[in-house]
Amino acid sequence: MRKSVCIGIAAAGLLVLAPFALMVYGSNSPVFLTVIGSTPSGMVDDNGQEFQVLTVRINNRDSGRLTLAEDGICAEAKVSGYWVGAQDLSTVLDVGTYRDLLVLVPYNSEGCRLAIEYLPEPLNLKAMRMCGRLGLWRLAWWRTLATHCFPVGWLEPLRSDYVGTSPHWKQVRPEVSCRVASTNTGQAPGF
Question: Which one of 14, 37, 109, 127 is CB 3.0 to 4.6 Å from 77, fit for a cystine?
Answer without folding.
Answer: 109
